[in-house]
Write a structure and sequence with these properties.
The complex is a heterotrimer. By secondary structure, chain A is an alpha/beta fold. Helix content of chain A is about 40%, strand content about 15%. In chain A, the strands form 3 sheets. In chain A, strands 1, 2, 3, 8, 9, 10, 11, 12, 13 and 14 form a 10-stranded mixed beta sheet that branches. A two-stranded antiparallel ribbon of chain A has the order 4-5. By secondary structure, chain B is mainly alpha-helical. Chain B starts with a helix and ends with a helix. The relative contact order of chain B is 0.14. Chain C is mainly alpha-helical. Chain C has 13 helices and no strands. The longest helix of chain C is centred in the N-terminal third of the chain and has 33 residues. The two termini of chain C are about 35 Å apart. The chains are: A alpha/beta, B mainly alpha, C mainly alpha. Chains in contact: A-B, A-C, B-C.
C-alpha cells in the first residue's frame, strides 16, 4: 500500500536482516539451529541439478524479477539478465523496476503470488524480518553451497566478503543476499582541506580542535542530514563501537539493556554532544533533508558530513569537478578498544527469493549470476559502488576519488571492520534511537538522557 | 444570483471600473469605520494572493534550475533557461500518466454522477420501506478512512479480475468502479438534498402526461438538476483527481510486461522518489509544472462554470 | 400512479448498492475481522487473538498522542479554514465600498476568487515538495529566507519549522489551510450571493456597520453551508496522511520530531507496513472509525439549527 511521497530514500540502504541478535540473547538456540544444517523444512529450494545448473532451472519457466529503482538505478540488472538468458537459451525474463516495493509486492505476497527474485530495498521496502517471520523467504543456504560460476571449484560462500552472510542471517539462516558493500564514515573535500592546510583528524581531540579552526575560517565544521537522524547515528554509534569494541556492538545489536550502561556509550555520545555545545553545526542542518545538507556540504558551507559510501554517486551531479571527495573513519576517543583506522562497513541492498515463487530455481540462479565478475564489474561501473563479491572489480575499472578513498580506508582497516545489524533487524529500536538522537542534536536532550532513552528502547520490539 | 454573476465570473483581471452613478451621501455612510478595515483587508487579500502565486511561480522556476541550485537554496534563481528538464520529464511518461488519469476520470465521474443521482433521486423522491436505512447506509461510508479497506479491497478487485481481466487489477475499469463506489456516499448525500429541494409540480405533470418513472427522471428531473449535477461533479473531479492510495494499491503493474496504467499522482511521486535517489530535481519540477499547468488552464477557462455551479448548488 | 413504482426503485438502486456493498462495505467488514487476528500483512496465515489488539491499543501512548493530535486538528483546522474563508468571502462579496448597488465585493474580487482556488487543483505530491522548500530550515528556505532578510530572525539560529516539536503540527495545519481556503471561499461566496442584497442595504440604512452585518446577517444565513464545510474539514483532519508522512521528520511515515506531529493514519500505516502488525493496525482503524462516527453524529446534532428562510 505504499506511502505517499516518501522520497526520502536512504532507508534505501537499509540492509535487511540479520540476526546475530539471537546470538547474544540465546546462544544455545542459535547453536541448535546451526547444527541442524542449512536446509530447514519450509523454504529451502529444490536441489536437483547439475554442477552447471545447480538449482535445476528450466528455460521454459519465465523469470519474474522486481528491481528497486533507487540510487543504483535498474540498468545494472540488464547485464545480469543477459547472462541468465545466455545460459538458459529461450528463457524469458520480465523485469519490473520500481521505487514502491511494498506497494507492488505486499498484495502479491498476501495473494501467494510473489515474483521469483526481488531487490527489496528503499523507503518502501518490505521489512525482511517481517517477511521472514511470515515464512515468505527462501533459505539461501543452497545458494551459498552452490558452485561459483567463474570458478566452479569454489562455492558461493567462499567468494563473499566477510559479514555478508551475517548481514542476511536471521536465527541462523541466511534469507537475503546483500549485494552492495557500503562503508560509513565522515566525508570531506580534500581540495578544501589542502587549500586551508587542515589535516584530517584521527582522534576526537583533533576533530574538536580542527573544528575550532574551521569555524574561525567562517565555515561550519559539521553538518548532517537532520531530517533523517540515522545519518547522525552512523557517527554516534560508530564512535561508541570504536570506544567499546566489537563486543559492545554485539550487545547493542542484541538489545541488551546492560550494554547501555557501558561507559563507552556515555563517552561516545558525550563527545558527539560537544558539537552542539560548541555550536559547530551548520545552521538549520537539524531539519535538512539529505539533498539539502549534502548540497550545502558540496558547496563548501560545512566541512564534514557523516554518510555511507553511496554519497559520491548520489551527489555526482552536484559535486564540483575539483572537489576531491575523501573519506575519514569516525574519530576515536582516548582509550578506544578499536584501532583508529577501524571502519564501519558491511553489505547492503538485500535481494530475496520468496518461498512461494513460481520459478524459485530461476530466482536463485539469478542471484548466482549476480555474483560473477562480469555482473559485479558492470555494477561497479554503472553504479559507482562495490559489490560483496571478493575481488569483484577488476583493477582496471577506474574509481572516483571518494570511492578510491573509502576503498583505501577499508584496505587499511584490514580485519578491523564492524557493522551494526539492529538498523535492519530491529525497526522499532532503531526508530527510538533515531528519535533520541534528533532530540540530542537539537539540545533538547542531554547525553545522559540519550543513554537512558537507548536503554529504554531495548524493550521496544516489533 | 444573476444580479451579481459578474462578480464570480470576472476573468483574472483586477476589477477596476469606476462605479457610475455613485451617491456621495451613501458612500460616506457606507464607509464609516471602513477605512482601517479596508487597508487591512486589502493588504491581507493581496498578501494571500502573493502567497499563492509565489509558490506556483517557484515550481515553474524550479524546472530551469540545476540540481545544485535546488539543493542549495530555495531562493536560487535559474541561470539557464533550457527545456531539457521538460523533455526528460515528458519522456518519463508524464503525458502518459495524464492520459491515464483522464481516461479514469472521464469514466469514473460520469458513472459516479449517473449512479449517484439515480440512487439519490429514488431515495429523495420515493417513499418505500427501508428508504432511510439505505440512505444512512450510503452516507455512513463518508466516515471511513479509505486506507482501512485497502487490503481487502485489493483482493476484491483481484477476484473481479478472475471474472474478466477488464475489471481486475491494473485495469481502467476496475479503478473506475472503485472510484465510483467510494464517491457514492458524498454524491448521494448532496444529490439527495438537491432532489428534495426541486419542485414536485413538474414531475407530477410529467407523470400525468404518461411518462414512465425512468423517463421522468432522465428527461425531466436531470435537466432540472443540472446545476446540482455540475457542482457535485466538480467536487468529484477534484476528489478523484487527487486520489493516491487507491491507485497506488490497485493500479500497479504486477509483472514487467504489464502496461503501465499509473495515474498522475503516482507518476509524480515516482518522479519525486527517483529524484531523491538520483538527484534529478529539475525533472521533478518540470514534471510538476507539466502536471499543474494544464489543470490551471482548464480551471481558468471553466472557472465561471465552476463558481456558477457551486453557486447554484447552495441555492436550494 | 399508473406506473409500477417498485421495479423502478429496484432498478435504480440495484447497481449503486451492489457496487457499494462489494467494493466498500465488504472490505471494511473484513477489516473488522482482521482486527481480531495477529495478521502480519505479509502472508495470509494468521491466528485469532480475540480482543488482544484492542486492549494493547488502549495502553499505547503513541496512539494516544496521535489521537490527541487528530482531535486538535479536528477542532482547529475547521475553525481556522472557515474563519479565514468566511473573511475572504465577506470581503470579496459584500466588503467593498458602495458602488452602484451599495453592496459589492472589494476591487479585484473576481481575480482573488480565481487565484485563491488554485491550490485546490494541485496534487498532494506537489504540495509536499513545495512546502518542504517553504519550511526549509536554513536560510535557503522560502520562509526563513524572507525572515532573515527582514531581520526578524538570526541567520545562525533560523526557525526550525517542521523540525521544531512545538511548530511541526502547526506547519502541517498551515499547508492544509493554505490549500483548503480557496475552495471554501468559493463555497461561501456562492452561499453569500444567494442572500438578497436588500437585507444588507436595509441593515446599512439602519446604521449597521459592515462588520456588524457580517455577524447579524451573513453568518446566520450561511450556517448550513458552514456546517457542510465543517464536516468536510473534519474528515480531512482525521486523515492528513499524505502531508504528515511526506513532510515531517521521523523514519517510516514521518510523525516526528519524536511523535510531535504523529497522527493516527501515519501510526496505523507504520504498524501495518513497517512493523508487520497489520492486525493491530486494523484494530486501530476500527477505533478510528468509531471515533469519526461518534464525532460526526455529535457535531451534526450540536450544530443543528433551524434553517432560516429568506
Amino acid at each position: 500500500m505504499g506511502s505517499a511521497t516518501e522520497y526520502n530514500r536512504r532507508d534505501i540502504f537499509k540492509r535487511a536482516a540479520a540476526l546475530t541478535v539471537m546470538a547474544a540473547a540465546g546462544g544455545p538456540l542459535v547453536a541448535a539451529c546451526a547444527a541442524s544444517g542449512g536446509s530447514g523444512s519450509g523454504g529451502s529450494a529444490p536441489t536437483t541439478g547439475s554442477a552447471d545448473n545447480p538449482f535445476g532451472v528450466k528455460s521454459s519457466d519465465p523469470l519474474d524479477v522486481v528491481i528497486f529503482d533507487g540510487g543504483y538505478g535498474a540498468d545494472y540488472a540488464k547485464p545480469i539478465e543477459d547472462i541468465y538468458k545466455r545460459s538458459y537459451a529461450g528463457s524469458t525474463i520480465s523485469q519490473l523496476a520500481t521505487q514502491d516495493i511494498s506497494g507492488k509486492l505486499q498484495p502479491r505476497f498476501n495473494a501467494g503470488n510473489p515474483p521469483d527474485v526481488i531487490d527489496d530495498s528503499g523507503a518502501q521496502q518490505m521489512k525482511i524480518d517481517v517477511l521472514q517471520k511470515a515464512g515468505q523467504l527462501t533459505d539461501l543456504t543452497v545458494l551459498l553451497d552452490a558452485p561459483y560460476r567463474d570458478d566452479p571449484s569454489k562455492k558461493i560462500r567462499d567468494v563473499l566478503l566477510p559479514g555478508t552472510i551475517d548481514q542476511g542471517t536471521i536465527a541462523g539462516k541466511m534469507y537475503s543476499l546483500n549485494y552492495v558493500y557500503t562503508v560509513y564514515g565522515l566525508w570531506y573535500s580534500n581540495k578544501l582541506f589542502t587549500e586551508k592546510g587542515w589535516t584530517p583528524p584521527k582522534t576526537w581531540d583533533d576533530f574538536v580542535s580542527l573544528s575550532a579552526t574551521i569555524k574561525q575560517a567562517g565555515i561550519a565544521p559539521f553538518c548532517h542530514q537532520g531530517k533523517y537522524p540515522y545519518y547522525a547515528n552512523f557517527m554516534i554509534m560508530g564512535m561508541i563501537a570504536k570506544q567499546g569494541g566489537p563486543d559492545l556492538v554485539a550487545r547493542i545489536d542484541a538489545l541488551d539493556p546492560a550494554a547501555w550502561d557501558d561507559p563507552a556509550v556515555l563517552a561516545g555520545i558525550s563527545a558527539f554532544y560537544e558539537i552542539m555545545q560548541k555550536d559547530y553545526l551548520l545552521p538549520g542542518t537539524n531539519g535538512m533533508t539529505h539533498t539539502e545538507s549534502q548540497t550545502a556540504w558540496c558547496q563548501g558551507k560545512a566541512a564534514f558530513i557523516p554518510c555511507g559510501s553511496w554519497l559520491e554517486n548520489e551527489m555526482i551531479k552536484i559535486t564540483p569537478a575539483d572537489f576531491d571527495m575523501a573519506f575519514l573513519p569516525f574519530p576515536v576517543l582516548a582509550g578506544a578498544k578499536m584501532p583508529q583506522n577501524a571502519v564501519q562497513a558491511g553489505a547492503g541492498e538485500p535481494f530475496v527469493v520468496p518461498t512461494k515463487a513460481r520459478n524459485q530455481a530461476g530466482g536463485l540462479e539469478f542471484l548466482r549470476v549476480m555474483l560473477t565478475k562480469e555482473a559485479s564489474g558492470k555494477f561497479a561501473s554503472t553504479a559507482n559502488s562495490l559489490t560483496v563479491l571478493k575481488d569483484g572489480v577488476d583493477p582496471s575499472v577506474p574509481l572516483k576519488p571518494g570511492t578510491k578513498s573509502s576503498a583505501a580506508a577499508v584496505t587499511a582497516a584490514g580485519a578491523a571492520t564492524f557493522n551494526y545489524t539492529y538498523r535492519d533487524l530491529q525497526t522499532a529500536y532503531d526508530l527510538a534511537l533515531q528519535n533520541a538522537t534528533n532530540e540530542l542534536v537539537n539540545s533538547r536532550m542531554t547525553p545522559q538522557q540519550w543513554v537512558a532513552a537507548g536503554k529504554a528502547a531495548t524493550s521496544s520490539k516489533v | 444570483m444573476t444580479t451579481n454573476a459578474d462578480l464570480t465570473t470576472e476573468v483574472p483581471a483586477p476589477r477596476d471600473h469606476p462605479a457610475p452613478a455613485r451617491k456621495p451621501a451613501r458612500e460616506q455612510r457606507f464607509a464609516d469605520g471602513g477605512g482601517v478595515l479596508n487597508v487591512f483587508s486589502h493588504g491581507f487579500l493581496a498578501l494571500w494572493a502573493v502567497m499563492i502565486i509565489g509558490p506556483l511561480v517557484w515550481i515553474v522556476l524550479g524546472s530551469f534550475k540545476t540540481d545544485a541550485q535546488i539543493g542549495g537554496s530555495a531562493w536560487a534563481w535559474p541561470a539557464h533557461w533550457g527545456f531539457s528538464a521538460f523533455s526528460y520529464a515528458w519522456h518519463q511518461g508524464i503525458a502518459h500518466y495524464f492520459a491515464n488519469t483522464l481516461i479514469v476520470l472521464v469514466g469514473s465521474v460520469t458513472l459516479t454522477m449517473l449512479l449517484g443521482s439515480m440512487a439519490a433521486y429514488v431515495l429523495a423522491r420515493y417513499a418505500f420501506p427501508g428508504n432511510r436505512i439505505i440512505y444512512f447506509f450510503f452516507v455512513a461510508g463518508a466516515m471511513f478512512p479509505v486506507y482501512l479497506a485497502l487490503v481487502p479491497l485489493f483482493f476484491m478487485v483481484k477476484n473481479l479480475g478472475q471474472i474478466s481481466p477488464l475489471l481486475g487489477l491494473n485495469s481502467y475499469l476496475g479503478l473506475i468502479l472503485v472510484y465510483v463506489a467510494y464517491s457514492l456516499p458524498f454524491t448521494v448525500f448532496f444529490m439527495y438534498s438537491f432532489f428534495r429541494s426541486l419542485p414536485t409540480a413538474v414531475h407530477e405533470a410529467a407523470m400525468i402526461d404518461g411518462c414512465s418513472h425512468t423517463r421522468a427522471f432522465f428527461q425531466v428531473m436531470v435537466p432540472m438538476a443540472k446545476s446540482g449535477l455540475i457542482s457535485v461533479g466538480i467536487f468529484n473531479v477534484l476528489g478523484q483527481w487527487n486520489q493516491y492510495l487507491l491507485p497506488v494499491t490497485l493500479m500497479q503493474q504486477q509483472h514487467g510486461g504489464d502496461p503501465d496504467h499509473s495515474v498522475l499522482t503516482q507518476g509524480l511521486i515516482n518522479l519525486a522518489q527517483q529524484s531523491g535517489y538520483a538527484s534529478n530535481f529539475p525533472a521533478l519540477f518540470a514534471g510538476m509544472t507539466i502536471a499543474m499547468l494544464p489543470v490551471l488552464v482548464v480551471y481558468l477557462s471553466f472557472q465561471r462554470q465552476v463558481q456558477a455551479g457551486l453557486t447554484s448548488a447552495t441555492l436550494k | 400512479m399508473r406506473h409500477r413504482k417498485y421495479p423502478f426503485i429496484v432498478g435504480f438502486l440495484i447497481i449503486p448498492i451492489v457496487l457499494y456493498l462489494v467494493l466498500v462495505i465488504w472490505p471494511y467488514l473484513q477489516t473488522f475481522g482482521y482486527s481480531l487476528t495477529d495478521w502480519s500483512g505479509a502472508s495470509q496465515t494468521m491466528h485469532f487473538v480475540g480482543l488482544r489488539n484492542y486492549t494493547q491499543l488502549f495502553g499505547d501512548s503513541v496512539f494516544r498522542t496521535a489521537l490527541l493530535h487528530n482531535l486538535l486538528l479536528l477542532v482547529l483546522l475547521p475553525i481556522a479554514t472557515i474563519l479565514l474563508s468566511l473573511f475572504f468571502a465577506f470581503m470579496l462579496n459584500v466588503g467593498g465600498r458602495g458602488g452602484t448597488g451599495g453592496v459589492q465585493g472589494v476591487r479585484g474580487a473576481g481575480f482573488y476568487k480565481v487565484i485563491f482556488f488554485f491550490p485546490q487543483v494541485l496534487s498532494v505530491a506537489i504540495l509536499s515538495v513545495l512546502f518542504q522548500a517553504v519550511y526549509r530550515t536554513d536560510q535557503g528556505g522560502l520562509l526563513n529566507g524572507v525572515l532573515v532578510k527582514l531581520g526578524l530572525e538570526n541567520a545562525n539560529h533560523p526557525w526550525q519549522w517542521l523540525a521544531d516539536p512545538n511548530l511541526a503540527l502547526w506547519c502541517v495545519m498551515g499547508v492544509l489551510v493554505w490549500s483548503g481556503v480557496g475552495f471554501y471561499l468559493v463555497l461561501f461566496s456562492a452561499a453569500m450571493q444567494s442572500i438578497p442584497k436588500d437585507i444588507y442595504e436595509a441593515a446599512l440604512l439602519d446604521g449597521a456597520k459592515r462588520t456588524q452585518t457580517f455577524f447579524t446577517i451573513t453568518l446566520p444565513l450561511l450556517w448550513e453551508t458552514v456546517q457542510t464545510a465543517w464536516v468536510y474539514l473534519a474528515i480531512a483532519a482525521m486523515d492528513a496522511f499524505a502531508l504528515v508522512s511526506t513532510m515531517t521528520q521521523g523514519a517510516y511515515y514521518g510523525g516526528g520530531p519524536n511523535y510531535h506531529s504523529e497522527v493516527m493514519s501515519t501510526y496505523l500505516m507504520r504498524n501495518f507496513i513497517t512493523f508487520g502488525k497489520a492486525g493491530y493496525a486494523c484494530a486501530m482503524g476500527v477505533v478510528i472509525f468509531f471515533i469519526t462516527l461518534i464525532l460526526s453524529v455529535v457535531s451534526l446534532r450540536v450544530t443543528r439549527r433551524e434553517r432560516i428562510e429568506y
